[in-house]
Each structure stands twice: as structure tokens, then as C-alpha cells.
Amino acid sequence: MSNIAVSERVPTGIIGLDFILKGGLPKNRLHLVEGNPGTGKTTLGLQFLLEGARRGEVGLYITLSESKEELASVAESHGWSLDPLEIQDLTDAGGDSLRDGSQYTVFHPS
Questions:
Q1: Domain 9-100 carries which CATH code?
Q2: Which helix (H) or strand (E) holds 16?
Q3: What pLDDT score does 65 carry?
Q4: pLDDT digits over 5-21, tens only?
């Protein structure tokens, strides 16, 4: 018998992914999703937050590259409503649009 405790899981709302992850993502952890444009990061994030809303949790989506309107369009294409979520649109925060060729950097936590 193993001494390793099995962490509590949070469902992603994606049945196949939850099966692979043995119930979802480990609870109370930070998860980074990265990939090329068009690989489904936004869709995965929205589906995860909407699953949480369905379960009575509060969700916040902070966007740095897609406007609130673009997110609503993605959601609509899947038949979803973003009404249960708080969307913080930082695509043009401080007048420095990320669409004009500027970049943002995420620093490694270590």
C-alpha cells in the first residue's frame, strides 16, 4: 500500500480529459496551459470555468490577447453563455494593445 495521498480532483467539464486525469485536475493547484494558436487553450479554459459555474463556483477569466467580444464569439460557437463568469479584459490595458506587435512575458515561478 502506498503512503502517497491521492489529491482531490476538480472536473474539467471534458469527459475524456477527466477520464485520463482520473477525475480532473488536482484541486488547489496552479495549472499552466500553453500551446500554439488554435490548439484549444481558450476553449479548455472556458469549459473548465463553466463547469465550475455549473457546480456553484465563481469563475474569473483574465484575457490578455482576446477581447471580451472575441471570447463571447468562441463561447457562442460552442453554444455556451459566459454570463456565469466574470471576464477581465486586459487586451488594451493602459493603451498598450497586445495586437500591435508588442509581447507579454510570463516568468517561470522558480
A1: 3.40.50.300
A2: helix 15-20
A3: 84
A4: 568 999 999 999 999 99
How does DSSP assign 43-107, residue by residue? HHHHHHHHHHHHTT--EEEEESSS-HHHHHHHHHHTT---TTEEEEE-TTGGG--GGGT------
Write down the domain spans for the chain.
9-100
Burial of 71 (0-12, 13-18, 19+ CB in 10 A): buried
pLDDT at 49 over 90: yes
* Residue 49, Cβ density class (10 Å: 0-12 exposed, 13-18 middle, ≥19 buried): buried
Give the C-alpha separation, 21 to 87, whole Å: 27
Helices 41-54 and 68-77 pack at an angle, to 10 degrees, of 80
pLDDT of residue 7: 83
